[in-house]
Design a protein that fits this description.
39% of the residues lie in helices and 18% in strands. With 553 residues, it is α/β, with parallel strands linked by helices. The strands form six sheets. The chain has an eight-stranded mixed sheet, sandwiched between helices. A five-stranded mixed sheet has the order 7-6-5-10-11, sandwiched between helices.
């Protein structure tokens, strides 16, 4: 939800946080309620609802929700494989390449209008934003840039897999549209599937696994010739079905980690080539970037290192979970003219009501106590080697925990890292955690640390002097994905300052407050439930401390 008069994002939340189903595909009833409540609006006050994507695939699943649910369960491995599953995947990839048309737009509008009437928003007018315009709007209008090259790259949406535009005078000008069949996103998605991981969810694991591969002895990467970059255009020599067969044959010849390396190297090389061409062509020196491919932090690091690039901003909720906000931003700019929507903070979830934390703790039956200084208490526990579940204020928007809903530990312990991975978070062992680092510490710990990154969207190489201090949050390639924290983060900044006093470095291992396969927790009740099931040491929630319940013998 956007306040266009004040150029401010009032509230943003994904439905998964309320239904507790990761990557929820149902209609966002609960998140609509949450946004209205936060903005202090009645349903009859809403004049317009902005939405994106009206291609045949999206329209079909809107009209027949059972199809969407069936594919959701298949993709997330919630049902056992069946004989027709491979056909379903093939059909999905073929259908998603089709662009929208007048019929699909009208059908999507009819279905969504019916749903809006059901939730009490029947008076609101629908406004459509094309899929990649919504992605571009998130990056362009929250970047703080006056001029920039605006890049979107993802799997596919509205018949495209990417766009290149320029931002100037508050307006976006489209320069290049990349077709659905030439998709970097689909390429990486298929790689993820073939490695027996969940597409649209485990691509980060592929990137992590790639660090255990190696450059081919003859220097030839057989995947590199799949894509050709010419100027600001991309072409893939194989359609999605042929791409899958080709990649499966290559995987059969090498270990999984080597296949991941080849895929990652291909993506990095081609994305860098595309952006380098676009920067030279346009003369722009800044990049604003969104879309699912923008979650690849290693490719982002290389983009930021281009000699043609002075600065890069990656919208932190880069995937399709950010499209609703993008559609709202695009419509606000269209209605009111040029404007910026600064993204100083991602804690955009609904506010807690007074007493909500204490009420939830009281109902839980757990022993809890108020603490005078939660930041100092948490820092003390962390310094002692305990794992602290941390719940403060409004929830973050997007996939990263940024000090509102976090699980925290010392950054210098590989034993704690392994405990978190294998016991608490229940993730694969090779997937690294990320650090939160005080702004003033970043430059001495990280190469390029003088350039702030608030939202964990970029990899940085750790300096030699920082390797022991951050050994619990460094990947095998010597990089990490940091959140750099300044005073605007309030209590979280104070926690890092207290941590520096306790352990000698203003840094923390910071991972999302959830168990593997679940969404980030939203409410105090959800936080308590996750804490109890995890077996963690301590929960610091608001001004209260909860210790792990004793296990009866």
């Amino acid at each position: 939800m956007v306040d266009e008069s004040e150029r401010r994002i009032l509230c943003a939340a994904n439905e998964e946080r309320f239904t507790r189903r990761k990557l929820e595909v149902g209609f966002p009833d609960r998140s609509i309620e949450a946004c209205l409540r936060e903005a202090g609006l009645a349903k009859e006050d809403v004049e317009e609802v902005a939405v994106s994507t009206s291609d045949p695939a999206k329209t079909l699943t809107r009209a027949f929700p059972s199809l969407k649910e069936s594919y959701y369960l298949l993709r997330r491995r919630k049902v056992r494989p069946r004989a027709l599953d491979s056909w379903k995947r093939w059909f999905k990839y073929e259908l998603t390449t089709w662009p929208p048309n007048r019929v699909t737009r009208r059908l999507s509008e009819a279905v969504l209008s019916r749903e809006l009437r059901r939730v009490g928003l029947g008076k609101a007018r629908l406004h459509w934003a094309p899929h990649h315009l919504a992605h571009a709007a998130t990056a362009a209008y929250t970047s703080g840039f006056d001029t920039a090259l605006v890049l979107t790259l993802d799997g596919v949406g509205d018949g495209l897999s990417g766009t290149i535009s320029t931002l100037a005078g508050g307006s976006l000008t489209l320069l290049s549209a990349i077709g659905a069949k030439d998709s970097f996103g689909i390429f990486y998605e298929v790689v993820t599937q073939l490695l027996n991981m969940r597409e649209l969810e485990d691509e980060g694991k592929v990137m992590a696994l790639a660090s255990y591969g190696y450059a081919p002895p003859d220097g030839r990467n057989p995947l590199m010739d799949l894509f050709r970059v010419e100027g600001m255009k991309i072409s893939c020599r194989l359609p999605p079905s042929g791409l899958r067969r080709f990649l499966a044959a290559e995987l059969a010849m090498v270990p999984s980690e080597q296949f991941a390396f080849l895929a990652q190297e291909t993506l990095e090389t081609k994305v860098v080539e595309l952006v380098s061409n676009a920067l030279r062509t346009t003369g722009m020196r800044r990049v604003a970037y969104a879309g699912g491919v923008a979650s690849n932090i290693q490719a982002n690091r290389k983009l930021g290192s281009l000699p043609e690039c002075d600065e890069i901003f990656v919208f932190p909720h880069m995937g399709d979970g950010g499209l609703a906000l993008g559609a709202a931003l695009a419509r606000a700019v269209e209605r009111k003219g040029a404007g910026h929507f600064p993204l100083g903070d991602l804690r955009l979830g609904p506010s807690l009501r007074p007493g909500e934390i204490e009420d939830a703790l009281g109902e839980s039956g757990l022993r809890f106590e108020p603490v005078e200084d939660p930041a100092a208490e948490a820092a003390h526990r962390i310094a002692q080697g305990e794992v602290v579940f941390w719940f403060q204020g409004r929830m973050e928007f997007g996939p990263r925990a940024l000090g509102g809903r976090s699980i925290l530990a010392r950054p210098d312990s590989d034993l704690l890292r392994d405990r978190l991975n294998l016991k608490l978070k229940r993730r694969v062992w090779y997937q690294p955690f990320c650090p939160s680092i005080l702004d003033e510490e970043a430059e001495r710990l990280l190469e390029g640390g003088e350039t702030p990154n608030r939202f964990m969207t970029m990899a940085y190489r750790v300096r030699t002097e920082g390797r022991d201090l951050l050994k619990g949050v460094i990947g095998r390639d010597g990089t990490c994905r940091p959140q750099m924290v300044d005073e605007s983060y309030g209590i979280y900044h104070r926690l890092l300052v207290s941590t520096r006093k306790a352990i000698g470095v203003g840094a923390l291992l910071n991972t999302s407050f959830n168990l593997h396969g679940e969404p980030l927790v939203a409410s105090p009740a959800q936080a308590i439930d996750c804490f109890v099931r995890s077996g963690a040491d301590v929960l610091v929630m608001g001004d209260f401390l909860v210790e792990r319940p004793a296990v009866s013998s």
